[in-house]
Structure formats: C-alpha cells, structure tokens
Amino acid sequence: MRRRTILQAATSTGLAAALPALHRPEPPRRITPAYVEQLRARAARLRRLDIVLGGGDTHRVYLAEVQHTKSLLRDAVFTGDSRQKLTALLAEQAQQAGWAAFDGGRAREAKSLYEESRTHARDAHDDDLYGNALAFLAYQELSDDRTAAVSFARASCTTITPTTPSTVRALLYERLAWACAVDGNAADTERALDAARDALDTAAEDEPQPDWSTWVDYTELDIMTGRCWTELNRPLRAVPVLTRALSRYSDDHARDKSLYLSWLAQAYLTAGEVEEAARHVSRAATLAYGVASQRPAHRLTPLITDLRPHAGIGAVRELLDRTSI
C-alpha cells in the first residue's frame, strides 16, 4: 500500500458519483405525524451508511434528504403538529449531512449545515437537537478557534434538562471533554468525562433514546476518554482504556477504528514506545484504505512523519517502506 494510494482513497469522491438516486415513495397529499415518523425511520436506516462508508460516499445521499424535506416544508399541506415534527427531522438530517461534509473534507459546508440545523432545531423547539448542533459546531471549530469551540461545547451542555435522554447527555458531555482536552484543560476534561459516565450509569433500562445518539455507549465513552488523555499527553492513562475499548470494536467500522488506533499510536509514541506506535499506525492505515474519508489521512500522515527518525527500528522501517516515505 503506497502512501499516495492511501491519500487518494481518503480524498476520492468514492461511490457518491456512481450511486443512483435512492428510491423515495411519493408523499401523501397531507403530511401527518405518522408519515413524519416513517421519514424518521428512513433517516435512521440511512444513518447506518455512516458505519461503513466515509463522507465522500454519503454526503450526496444525506444532502438529498435535506433538500427533499425542505421541499415538503415549502409545498406540502400539514395536519396536527406534523410541520413542527418535520422541522425537527430536518434539523436531524442537516446534522447528518454536515457530519458527512466534515468527514469528506468540506469544512465550510459542514459548518453551514450545522448552523442551519441549529436554526431548525430552535424553530422545532427541540432542545436535544439544538444542543447537538452546538456540539457539532464545537467539534468543527477546534481546528481554528479552541476558545470558540469550548464555548460552543459548554453552551451545548446548558441545553441538558432532567428529561434529556441519557445518551444525549453523555454525547454532549463527552464532546465538551474533547474540546477541553484539545484546549489543554485537564481538570475540566475529567469533570466532563465523569458527567458523561454518570449519564450512562443512571440511564433507566426502558428509557427511549433518539436514534442519532444510540451509538453512545461505554465503549464509545472509553474511546473518547483515551483520546482525551492522549491529547493531554497522559499516555499511561490513555493506553489501557483505548486498548480495552478497541478490543471490543469491530473492524467493520473501518474508518472510525482507524482513527481511534491513531490515538493509541500517538499515546504509545508519547510514551516512547516507538515499535508499538508503528504497529498501530500500520494497522490503522490498512483499515483506512479505500474509505472515502479525509480524516484518517490527516491523522496518520503526521504520525508517520514523526516515526521517520526511528527508521532503524524494524516495525518503523516496514511501515515507511509500505507508505513510500
């Protein structure tokens, strides 16, 4: 596997150009709450594409859903509270499209979609989606303005109420933890991680959760915990939790596992365990191959560069040979 092949795969348009328009039944003459729930179920099914495909493959699919919902809101006749429910669904769809844009390297478009989502969530009086829009903006802003990112993340957590679902609470708190970690604030990072864990610990067994946050579980929280401690240069705390979490994480989630392995590699490199770092970078590169996402390449390229001075170590030499550096 050559480095240029990895980077080409990460930046390609992927399947998107070849995908046909997805089948969409004609809407009824009147949009009812029941019909909106059918659309919400469709959005949940399409969200599963993100598990195996990168934003380069899914962006156009998700954006088409946003445009279709906008056309319904503009032209359709509504009964009951169906307009409000459809507006909330539009906020949800805009977040998914924004995430795909971000993953595919379209940062400006992603930010615009997150801002749009925030507006729709506000109009729909949906505090959970409003908070998540702020959390997405925080994640987006970290590379440009850490202070603004932390501010967005803190604001997202102010939307939490006693009725906020546990997975939503955990999601907002863990994204606050990440913003604080990248900003170098260890104390606030730990407080936010503890709040996220408490949200999962106190969840009622039969508590309904929105589909867009059901992926947040203890494995996800362990991964975020390890990522945070890696960013804070605390490898002795990061390595065990990341190793444990990744042992439970399927290779089917190739993009995400590749990214998470990169943080494990970074933690090992910080600890001076160069051979282990090289081994995990190599594994991450293998998983990232062919995934239409720019993020693995952005993570792995500087790690490979940092390993280059250790070319005398066998695992590093093998990695460099494979990546043509």
Explained architecture:
It is a single chain. This protein has 325 residues and is mostly helical. The protein has 16 helices and 2 strands. A two-stranded parallel sheet has the order 1-2. It starts with a helix and ends with a helix.
Query: What summary fits the major beta sheet?
Result: 2 strands, parallel
Strand order of the largest sheet: 1-2
Count of separate DSSP helical elements: 16
How much of the sequence is in beta strands? under 5%
Estimated radius of gyration: 20 Å
Question: Helix fraction?
Answer: over 70%
Instruction: Identify low-pLDDT runs.
Output: 1-20
Mean pLDDT: 91
Order of helices and strands: HEHHHEHHHHHHHHHHHH
Report, as a whole number of angstroms, the end-to-end distance.
12 Å
Structural class: mainly alpha
Number of strands: 2
Rough shape?
Answer: globular
Keywords:
325 residues, mainly alpha, 16 helices, 2 strands, globular, disordered N terminus
Which secondary structure elements does this structure contain, and how are they paired or packed?
Layout lengths: L2 H9 L18 E2 L1 H15 L1 H4 L2 H21 L1 E2 L3 H22 L3 H17 L3 H15 L4 H12 L8 H17 L3 H16 L16 H14 L3 H12 L7 H17 L3 H15 L6 H13 L6 H10 L2
Parallel strand pairs: 1-2
Short description, anyone?
Helices cover 70% and strands 1% of the residues.
